[in-house]
Design goal:
By secondary structure, this protein is of the alpha/beta class. The protein folds into 4 domains: about 5-155, DNA polymerase, domain 1; about 160-245, Beta Polymerase, domain 2, CATH 3.30.460.10; about 250-325, DNA polymerase, thumb domain (Beta Polymerase, domain 3); about 335-575, TIM Barrel (Alpha-Beta Barrel), CATH 3.20.20. It is globular. The chain binds 2'-deoxyguanosine-5'-triphosphate, calcium ion (CA) (2 copies) and zinc ion (ZN).
Length: about 575
Amino acid sequence: MQNPDIARLFDEVADLLEIQDANPFRVRAYRNAARTIRDFPDSLADLVRAGTKDLTDIPGIGEDLAEKIAAIVTTGELPLQKQLARKLPAGLLDLLRIPGLGPKRVKLLYKKLKVKSAADLEKALAAGKIQKLKGFGPKIEEKMRAGLGQAQGGERRMLLNEAETQASAVVAFLRAGGGIRQIEVAGSYRRRRETIGDLDILVTSASSAKVMDRFVEYEEVAEVISKGETRATVKFRSGLQVDLRAVQPEAYGAALMYFTGSKAHNIELRKIAQERSYKLNEYGLFKGARRVAGETEEEVYAKLGLDWIPPELREARGEIALAREHRLPHLVEVKDIHGDLQMHTSATDGKGTIEDMVHAARALSYEYIAITDHSKRVTMALGFDAKRLREQWRAIDALNAQSRGFTILKSVELDILESGKLDLPDDVLAEADYVVATIHYGLTQSKQELTRRLVGAAEHPWVDTIGHPTGRVLGRREPYPFDFDALCRACVATGCLLELNGHPERMDLPDTLAAGAKQHGVRFVLSTDSHYPGNLPHMRYAVDLARRAGLEAGDILNTRPLAEFRKGLKRAVKGGGGR
Ligand code: DGT
Ligand code: CA
Ligand code: CA
Ligand code: ZN
């Protein structure tokens, strides 16, 4: 049981409660619990098993939650979840997984139309019954249709960080069995997509059959779908499907290329091979029956006249032409990052003090961080008014005065209000070192209104960055509608930055939009939006996004040392002589 598995059970409890009209505070408590657990950096199962730490010592975890976590870890299930699920038809929970359908809508569909399953929903859609329900417009109907198609195609994707937890653990387990020469997780995981359909693991080993035997014995395996001497497919308890293939060492590079994909990238490569009268497949690059390359990726790309292409770029979005012309970007790396520009403390909805965050940041050899607690509009998180924010800033001044070689930037995650106004007055914002403006409310406004809010914020003299610009939450919330090009133009004109938020549930900007923004000439910052000190290493995911967008260190302001970082901010260049 990994943290995401535990969190999923709490989310299900919240969903079930919401469908059953439970007290909204109770629903919120379980949602918060799920989030706390999902964000928690250490394995709760390990902590429970070790028995050395009282779970209630962990911020955000009280008696009740601690007991439930211990029960889940020891028994694999949560009795409350079972009990709630028994009261409802089994298909109802599957409906929740259809994009466009949350607990509120599922409840309505069930109560008004007796929709109990995906099949019922399909019938209701076909009969035109959905349109007649209050609160179900044609847009939602369209989304449900598309979502239904996806759900029936078995499309259920896992967040990259959850997949990473699972992947690292199974790879470590396989290695510990011995006899493995090479092992790598290929597929969308290696391309660092923000969500993963299934894991594709490749190994070379002198005793493949033994590796397969060990694999199906792994404790997370809930079902063995198929098993042979060189290939096995299983399903984990979390629902994640995992393929393991053993290949010959001479073919390892070719197999790694093939199973890394993407499919579209592979198809382009095969065409290039054909043009040069080669044949390319997962066993190698062949001239007639002779293998001319296959042991490493580099040699296969080279024989095709291409530079080696980083997996993050293999999406058939122009990278092959760049590789041919030796013009691939020099992608940004984690070690290029000098600081983290979005994080929360226990003063709002985070779970650590400023000092805790500094400690974690220093461990990553950062030079600076911005503490970006929420502004007051986010009442749920006890967002700051001007007075409380200034108090925090005084505390930061005091900490900075004592510390050498590390700077805490006085900052705020500033809400862009429904009216387009900012949540704090200009004189306060002028005193900040850095301001990241974001939208959390009024997400159902029109495209024009949302665009006006974002562009207005980008043009504001004291807004340095637009944070999590599209507002998407993976698997839960689509981006709000807005004119992205208009935002990019405003950013270029004013020097406003766009954030690549590496919170695993956000990953916002999406890669294709970030690539588009770069074309406009926009510059970026990378951040983690950490809510725990232990989340700061999530910078890796922001870097993954940036790399998929083809960004180099020069595109990203927080790859610069502090002095240069400050000079690159809009407030230093244009901001009314603020400092
Ligand atoms: P996922 O699992 O949906 O997140 O995405 P991928 O990219 O991991 O896709 P998956 O697991 O279906 O297949 C892994 C790789 O295998 C894929 O990226 C490319 C390769 N592959 C799969 N099917 C085909 C195919 O029909 N043709 C070619 N050329 N390659 C394929
Ligand atoms: Ca895959
Ligand atoms: Ca696969
Ligand atoms: Zn936010």
